[in-house]
Write a structure and sequence with these properties.
about 375 residues, globular, 10 helices, six-stranded antiparallel sheet, about 45% helix, alpha/beta, six-stranded mixed sheet
């Protein structure tokens, strides 16, 4: 997978920008707040229709403007595709080869990316919500049906929580509607949990191998999915549905008292262990960084395994955060295999000897020069 060109209008600090003829490795060099991260973000948004930096789409639209447009031409193994995404107060519209997509989930997956930024260290040491977001965004790229069930689950969750807030002090007859929401919550929740389990099992295979390579065989990395209502190894949908229903029944009185849903994939977590010691709690900063790096490199291989081609790699101010050894490990992984975009404040922080034939772009005040 290869991004040939990108065209931006009123995106972040870019009034209009068109860049053609990207290379296999592209260095975006500029001081902070000049727009280099915005350029990497634009590629990410074209892949997932949402930003890794904000959940508020209006922040992506240039100040004072009503809409933004992002477009790119992407070479894939089956040919070239033209992608276009429009953002406005009315919502988003996505096109593939000029044809508007009925659902955004039909657009996601046309371009696959792996983003690695300093904040990705939070996947290891941050809150469970960060790890759930990591799972949702990565699974959504290779399994568009997952996004549908996730969206439906979130809609049902809001309705169920609203009902729970109204049920305190009400009789049994007032709880009939809760059973209706339970059925829908379980229907979509089980699909989410099953897909997460399958994804983590595959990610574990790649991450363990990569982590052993980085650490010279001295450390064994293990991933552990922590679902809120089932055993981590269970994948049978019928069994999962029974387990989820039983859990909801057990938690009903407590949920009514608290006015919120206490069990389901919105409460799940992911944990990491090195040599059977939990990395979040007991790992050094170096081990946490290596775990995050192993996860990102594993994502690249997993996406290749799932769709038959490598994703585009976005490295946002992350190489300078890594010591020379980890820089070398990362560069050697993508060199000659994955198209890569690297943002940095200066070339001096990078292991340029390893970055062969890189194209260099200087970014200043929303202008880009090759």
């Amino acid at each position: 997978m290869f991004v040939n060109s990108i065209d931006l209008q009123n995106f972040r600090n870019y009034e209009h920008l068109r860049l053609d003829s990207f290379g296999p490795v592209n260095l975006l060099i500029g001081q902070n707040a000049q727009g280099k991260t915005n350029l990497a973000e634009a590629i990410f948004v074209l892949a997932l229709t949402k930003s890794h930096r904000t959940s508020r789409d209006k922040e992506l639209i240039r100040f004072g403007e009503e809409r933004a447009r992002l477009a790119a031409e992407v070479d894939k193994k089956y040919g070239s595709v033209k992608l276009e995404l429009s953002l406005s107060q009315q919502g988003k519209k996505a096109k593939i080869n000029g044809l508007e997509q009925r659902k955004l989930s039909d657009f996601v997956g046309a371009l696959n990316v792996v983003m690695f930024a300093p904040e990705d260290l939070e996947i290891v040491k941050g809150t469970p919500g960060v790890r759930r977001r990591f799972l949702d965004m990565e699974i959504g790229q290779v399994a568009p049906g997952y996004l549908y069930h996730l969206q439906q689950y979130q809609k049902v969750l809001v309705q169920r929580n609203n009902l729970l807030k109204q049920l305190w002090g009400q009789g049994a007859s007032a709880q009939t509607m809760l059973e209706v929401w339970n059925e829908q919550l379980v229907e979509h929740g089980v699909k989410i949990v099953k897909k997460r389990k399958q994804f983590i099992k595959k990610l574990q295979k790649w991450a363990e191998t990569i982590h052993q390579g980085i650490t010279g065989g001295g450390e064994v990395l293990r991933l552990a999915y922590l679902p809120s209502f089932s055993e981590a190894s269970e994948e049978d949908e019928a069994v999962l549905m029974d387990q989820f229903m039983i859990k909801l029944s057990q938690m009903k009185e407590q949920e009514i008292r608290r006015g919120t849903t206490l069990s389901g994939p919105h409460r799940d977590d992911l944990s990491f262990f090195i040599n059977d010691r939990e990395v979040q709690t007991y790992g050094s900063q170096g081990q946490q960084r290596t775990t995050a790096l192993s996860l990102k490199l594993a994502e690249i291989e997993l996406i290749h395994e799932e769709i038959g081609e490598y994703p585009v790699l976005l490295l946002d101010d992350v190489l300078s955060e890594l010591d020379p050894f980890r820089q070398t490990q990362l560069i050697e992984t993508f060199q000659s295999k994955v198209q890569t975009f690297i943002t940095a404040t200066g070339i001096e922080s990078l292991n340029v000897d390893k970055l062969k034939d890189a194209s260099i772009y200087h970014v200043h005040a929303g202008q880009v020069e090759r």
